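Let us begin with a simple case.
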Amino acid sequence: MRSSLLRPGCAMLLLGVVGWMAGCASTGESAGADTKLVANVGNYPPGPSGVNKPRVGVPPFKVTTGGGFSGGKDLNDLAADQMNTLLYKTRRFDVIERTQLKKLLDEQNLEGIVKPGELAKPAQVRGVDFLLIGNVTNLRVKHENTRKGANVAGVGGVFSGFGFDKKETVITTECGVDIRLVDPTSGKIMVAENSEFKRTDTAGAMGVSILGGHAEGDANVSMSEDDKGKILRLALDDALRKSLPDIDAFLQEQGRGGSSPRSSTPAEGNTNVNTGPATGQPAAAKKFCPNCGHEVAPGAKFCPSCGKPIS
């Protein structure tokens, strides 16, 4: 009689404990996951003082995907948008908005010089000192389901075969990131960095959601556009962070009077670069931009510093 009275009470108590355990595990893992994932992204040490900020544009990246990363909007533009924001956060460059960069290329009939991930041919992009060219290779996400929890075979002989089991999704993200700071006039690479990015964590800890539910490890992963953006941002931030020492050294060299990108020797066959008057001809009167006051070449239609049309 007494045993039969105890069973419902014990059952309710045990279910309450198990529910509390599950709630704590879920809350502890997911609370603040988004914040933890990107807490350090875009948080860079200060750059060298007393140096000029070059004007940089970011054309579309070239992103190739491997197993497990499928679907979604154009990753080439998504990666370039992410890098544009990260470059601005370094406080080392005057970053041109990507829509403005496209407008400059269109106005100068240079739309075809920049293909995703490469500089197709050297050309003077007026209003831009450098282009940041980028490739993301073999971007892949794989996951596997693991289980953790407690099995209760019996409490005082009351229960038999009761268990608590929690399924976790473990995600491994990896890719290669190659970024190059290029002088578009000469095609010369000023700074280059290649980074191999890899991160393994639970989906809850990373703050991402796997859509579809029952896929096994190495199966295609369906993710939201926001979650794809998070993963790309982590990989790009890692590559940019590793390149900062070289970027700082380059900026300091420029500040000490290193060769200006505008004084680089034009590539052979480049008809877009103004080479100035021939030797022996009288120098033309100096001309200045009415917007920023920068000196411009005779006959120039756009200011090389601010990109504004010259009347």
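The second case is a distinct protein. As before, the sequence precedes its structure tokens.
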Amino acid sequence: MAPLLQCLPLPAGLSELEAAALPENYFTVWSNVFVRGRLSGAETLLVQGGSSGIGVTAIQLAKALGHRVFATAGSAEKCRACEKYGAERGIDYKKEDFVEVTRDLTGGRGVDVILDMVAGDYVPRELTALAEDGRLVIIATLGGAKAQIDASLVMHRRLSITGSTLRVRPVAFKGELARQLHEHVWPLLAAGRVKPVIHQVFPAADAAQAHALMESGSHIGKIMLQW
């Protein structure tokens, strides 16, 4: 049972299954990219892990709101998927250096906001990839929870390092996010400018297969269970 403040109406044109794919992704992206990361105006965004459920949401939403978006992914196929959903350039992190690519694409300036699901040894490289006054927002630690940074770079370029987890936040906070999503994002969903990306739907009885697919990392977008 969900608190009423956190609930949102079914967006026009979406099925119940599609709507079920929205909350975790859209609450997370809005809270971290647009509230904590303060992405605005003509600023640019780099999404690490762009082919994930969170990743394709961040790409679509930032693109729909007028931002240039770049994204990293682990194969040529996933990079093309990121571009399909609105990334200006998919960057294959197994073959390319995201620092060099994003600096080249921004004329040496760097990106304004990075949404990071990796952390670890990505962090010092991400600080190099940021523009002056840039913001690094960490939401997962797939690459490790510890990082060594150059504090002088943070000071000289006025960089911000932040992050969050949504699950432990109070109902009132999540309710305010829901209000903002309803105002700013639900109209984009109704207009078809952003949409849930569902890789595969499994019967609930096959949850173990769904977990295996998730662990394989071969999916693009959300993996759903249906009862």
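The first strand starts at residue 44 and ends at 47. The chain is about 40% helix and 20% strand.
Keep these points in mind for the review questions at the end of the chapter.
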